[in-house]
Design goal:
Length: 284
Amino acid sequence: MKESFLFGIERAKQLIKSADYILIGGGAGLSTAAGMSYSGKRFQENFEEFIEKYGMTDMYTAGFYPFATEEEKWAFWSKQIDLNRWQPDGLPLYHKLFDLVKDKEYFVLTTNVDAQFEKAGFAIDRIFAVQGDFGKIQCAKGCHDKLYDNQSLVRQMVAEQKGCRVPSYLVPKCPVCGGRMEVNVRIDMYFVQDKAWYDAEQRYERFLQKTRGKKLVLLELGVGHNTPTIIRFPFERMTYQQENTYLIRCNRNEAEAIPENREKTISFTEDMDDVFVRLLSSSI
């Protein structure tokens, strides 16, 4: 075991123990580390028919595939949503994270759309899922700001699809304008931010106000440079600007600190499960 890793664990433990507040930033790498890979064996086992028909290589890029019909689009999306949103319970890695912070004043800012934080026990009113929720659908043109739960529809689509198509009668239509429906994920200017979204944003802002001048630890987990303006850049800015704020960053490939924050950042490239286990242990 590298001495620098053990030293980082001990330092992170002390920071978390003494923190007045903890802000978690959860990115795609967190769910990947938890076992929800969008590529490789997991993708191949669940989307064999789609791979053969469309030449898909992974679930993420497949989400941008220009399907010719709504029946084909919803065949793919229903399988993806069911696999990544409705099937899994709270995964062990998320439960370890919850155990790490459950007795602290915490808040979660996440770009993930799989509801894993909620499933692992994090309080709903302490989560701001900025980019949406796989479990909701919306008008494709955002003609109104209501979201619709899709669990029963998605499971019916999965059960009844054949040849990479769902029956036409299952294709959802907007109940207001009669147009297409989409998954409530931020992909364009029509992404619907409903009242619950704005309420979560306000709770996040109030949390940030409370932390000013206090001991704040930022746990940045699996956040890369896909949408860095949501978590990564703001966390770096807070670390730099606020005297009592420190950043703990877990990232396989992009864990480095910016030069200005080098003394206030602890970086881990190791397996996230190992990091959490050691942070939870009474000794290292």
